[in-house]
Design goal:
The structure holds two protein chains of two kinds. Chain A has a single domain, classed as MetI-like fold (Orthogonal Bundle). In chain A, about 80% of the residues lie in helices and about 0% in strands. Chain A contains ten helices and no strands. The radius of gyration of chain A is 23 Å and the shape is flat. The model of chain A has no long low-confidence stretch (mean pLDDT about 90). By secondary structure, chain B is an alpha/beta fold. Helix content of chain B is about 35%, strand content about 25%. In chain B, helix 5 links the parallel strand 7 and strand 8. The two termini of chain B are about 20 Å apart. The N terminus of chain B is likely disordered. Classes of the chains: A mainly alpha, B alpha/beta.
Chain lengths: ~260, ~280
Amino acid sequence: MSLDSKFMAFAMPVGVGVILLSLWEFLVWFYQVPKFLVPAPSLVATTLVQDWWLLFSSLWVTLKVTFFAFFLSVVIGTLVAFLFVQSRVVEMSFFPYAVLLQVTPIVAIAPLIIIWAKDTNTALVICATLVGLFPIISNTVLGLRSVNPGLLNLFKMNKATRFQQLVRLRIPSAAPYFFGGLRISSGLSLIGAVVAEFVAGTGGSGAGLAYQILQAGFQLNIPRLFAALFLITITGVLLFLLMVALSRLALGGWHESELVPEA
Amino acid sequence: MAAPHPAPLPVKHGERENTVIEVSGAEKVFANGTRALEPIDLGIRQGEFITLLGPSGCGKSTLLKMIANLLEPSSGDIRWWGKGFDHVGEDGKKLVFVFQDATLMPWASVRGNVRLPLDLAGAERKLADARVDQALALVGLSKFDLSYPRQLSGGMQMRASIARALVTEPNVLLMDEPFGALDEITRNKLDQDLLDLWYEKKLTVVFVTHSIYEAVFLSTRVVVMAARPGRIMREVKIDAPYPRNEAFRVSQEFAMYARDLQLLLAEASAAGAVED
């Protein structure tokens, strides 16, 4: 990719953003829309600065839950995936339950988890983990099974042990799928954390961004609601970019998905 | 059907009557009842370059895989150095299989790929590095040791695959249409290099192909096979001296052998068609 097109890849979406925000600003001003309905982007920005400490401390709470849940999803998901590929019987017996976990709306079981868990934070982490877990399991299982049969034959002919097969063949083969799973799961962990906070509706000092959104809604403090929404979105994007960078770092040398087409 | 030729001997590699692999009455019937191979008798001697030549479906790959112990014969027997396959690897007696595709690990460099058999065997690092250097030099890939497979052409990937086979210093090379996917010019070059390698290293090679020209150019003996059911039709000894080069490829002798094989293959196909 040339420098020019790299610049364009950055400039074009930013340009679109600026145009849309300007249009929004203009329409709000032109039609005199009250700020408790739709606040102008400038007002949202001002609110973001004014309420920074309140919002930032909430963001920090949500981030802690997100990261902890994401970490747990990766660890548990990978372990479960390894268990599944050890034997077809294990996978056949348990995979449907993993799917069951995935298709049950987290909003529906969050109240239960909040009742069962000792404290709210634990409950939030459990909820977010449940949401983030499945993509890791399914992608890693798929990856561990996607081994080139020729290479597998080669390993067998060289009398490779099961462990050697795992480390030198299955894990590298699974890596691209695993990183694909990371991208999905990082976003889902954040969504899981926010949704669980909504259900929990915790107050006091340990309140996350969802709590701020709820409160701002009750108080018709719509600019703050938008500011909190903006923070969640930006966090999601940053998480995604972080995963993209990680995946490039790990796969950049060899995998097709990370190749830069030669001009 | 003519009786098999008496055991021919390569010109230079004269460890006489030294049978490496003995296939006796080995046949293959697949689980769905398909008869891939009728009982086969084939002796492979030290230093031979044997080509299995035949139309698709004649079971040449199946036979090679049985020789590699990747498939088990439904009945009959195969001996390696007079013993069962469990003993292969004892006293440095090794055979190695080269696949139709290069079958390289995309995440490893050429060096990493070639090293793999030594790594799996737990070879000492310094020794392994030296062996890898040697193998890469033999196939002409020394300058590309740090490249990744995707950066190499098809021919170079195949060279890397052969280097990986050579790194274990095998006695027998089993090759399943290794150059089938390459263009003719690249294929001719690789044929030449393989032949030189076989000559220098005193290897034994069993080579599967459906190219008559490749078979004539390379082999000390061509085993012509027919399809439905897979069977050996005839063995043809290619009695031309080594080292062979481009001059052999355009010689009268070469053309005669190619013609003979062409006729035999036509006969093999016709025989198959009758049973359809």
